[in-house]
Design brief:
Blueprint (H helix, E strand, L loop, with lengths): L8 E7 L2 H11 L4 H4 L11 H4 L1 H9 L3 E9 L8 E14 L2 E11 L5 E12 L3
Antiparallel strand pairs: 1-3, 2-5, 3-4, 4-5
């Protein structure tokens, strides 16, 4: 892992499918009707925590061990919508064998409307 830098950004895009929502409902046990019964347009409401897998995917790619995550769910996300997550390092503090980092995340839909915002604190171990 290279040293993270302040204002460094990363993005990830994903379009959730009906299968994704059904599998998450089975895994989480959250089978509320809006997640299992299609709306009048044939879409399912994507679980908020399933949407939150976008920033966690970026964190995994960057080898960030999260110590705290706070998310605000701003708008509903439906199957078939493309969602883009922007990850920005706010602070990077070198601490011996690791970096302590804080991160700002924002997920937006194809209309550039914010659907999820949040803050992440975590650690990145230096390469041995």
């Amino acid at each position: 892992m290279e040293e993270p830098t302040v204002d460094e950004t990363h993005t990830f895009e994903r379009t959730f499918t009906t299968d994704d929502v059904e599998r998450f409902a089975a895994l989480s046990g959250d089978r509320q009707d809006q997640h299992t019964e299609p709306d009048s347009d044939g879409r399912l409401l994507v679980h908020g925590l399933l949407t939150a897998t976008l920033p966690t995917k970026i964190g995994g790619d960057l080898e960030v061990l999260a110590t705290e995550m706070t998310f605000q769910f701003r708008r509903p996300v439906y199957t078939g919508e493309q969602i883009t997550c922007l990850w920005t390092f706010d602070t990077v503090d070198e601490q011996g064998d690791r970096y302590a980092v804080t991160v700002d995340v924002e997920c937006t839909n194809s209309d550039a409307e914010s659907v999820l915002t949040g803050d992440i604190e975590g650690l990145i171990w230096k390469a041995s």
